[in-house]
Amino acid sequence: MTKAEFLSKQKEAEYAIREKGKFIPWLSLMITIAMVAGIGMLAGFFRWTVYNGDPAYGLLWEIAFCLLVLCITSYEHRYSGQKTVALLKKLGLTCPICDRSSIFDNGKITAKTGQCSHCDHSFFDPAS
């Protein structure tokens, strides 16, 4: 890969990560935080309801729903990270030796020196 190809691919990847992919991870993180807080509140209500002798089947269903949403958003958050790694590998912006990404600040170091910022492996073709 030449330096010009690297810089164009780096720009494309940074745009995809910053602009296209920033809404879903934040949304899933906020939903995860809300579900954890909801489970805590519902567990408190459940304990209070059972202590008073009332059946708490509705609260159990609500806790189960919160756990289901928590699992789905956790999976989605993890999947969005895997999509980012796959994009970087597809564009060739990961070091073949240490498998670390070369975008943002690490990419600036790689563009200046021509070597991976982590393991000092030569990143560009010798002819470039």
Layout of secondary structure:
Elements: H1 3-20, H2 23-51, H3 57-91, H4 104-113
Helix pairs in contact: 1-3, 2-3
Describe the structure.
The protein starts with a helix and ends in a 15-residue tail after the last helix. It has one domain. It is built from four helices and no strands. The model has no long low-confidence stretch (mean pLDDT 82). Helix 1 (3-20) runs antiparallel to helix 3 (57-91) and helix 2 (23-51) runs antiparallel to helix 3. It has 128 residues and is mainly α.
Structural class: mainly alpha
Report the major sheet. none
Radius of gyration: 23 Å
**Segments where pLDDT lies below 50 for 5+ residues?**
none
Helix fraction? over 70%
Distance from N terminus to C terminus (CA atoms, Å) equals 8 Å
User: How many helical stretches?
Assistant: 4
Shape: rod-shaped
The domain tally reads: 1
Number of strands: 0
Mean pLDDT: 82
Q: Helix and strand succession?
A: HHHH
Strand content of the residues, in percent? under 5%
Key descriptive features of the protein:
mainly alpha, 72% helix
In short:
The protein is mostly helical and 128 residues long. The chain is built from four helices and no strands.
